[in-house]
């Protein structure tokens, strides 16, 4: 298995510290962000690229353009700015998250947004990773709908799916799209008191034996179906962000996932 590390695992680390930690953990793939932490506005893209090169890691993606499916206001400008940054820092992809406030977005608008994004991404050699969000209020919950929209937009050459184990579980999805999957985000929920429909990003911790999301079965299914890309850790819980030794916690979770996922493949 190939693991990647998302900067949200250690948001207090500088890019240099974060990249070095990922490399020590045996990962050559990393993801940077424009929120937690906001690398885009604090580190020049050329500096991020130089730091990645020095550490021997590859920037897999920037998280995330939101809401990518509402092509209005300043979204086109932000899309161009993020795609430029991705190109200049050497990132392979830009993560695309849909509107998530209870407002519906029509299929027509979704397809139009993808068409507009496709031209921006193609011009810069960047892949768009469409990440359906499984929350009940999300305007795009399921990967099957995302694939249909990508095809309708003629974007098969430039878009792939982000399979997120948290959102896959929240959406109640059963279908996997390994041939469409460009990257997988993994995180766990261990709180026994929260109902699935009430799970939020703040519940997402590193994957361990108390996981309620079925990470191991999802990972086994993806591997068995032919997915051979990275599995990237993306915990949002404050308790993870506050860890004094995130590297040790990640090493433990990596070992747990590797042993559990490979046991039945």
UniProtKB/TrEMBL annotation:
Coiled coil: none annotated. It comes from the Bacteria. InterPro entries: IolE/XylAMocC-like, UCP036778_sugar_epimerase, Xyl_isomerase-like_sf, Xyl_isomerase-like_TIM-brl. Residues 19-259 form the Xylose isomerase-like TIM barrel domain. Signal peptide: none annotated. This is TIM barrel protein. It comes from Salipiger mangrovisoli.
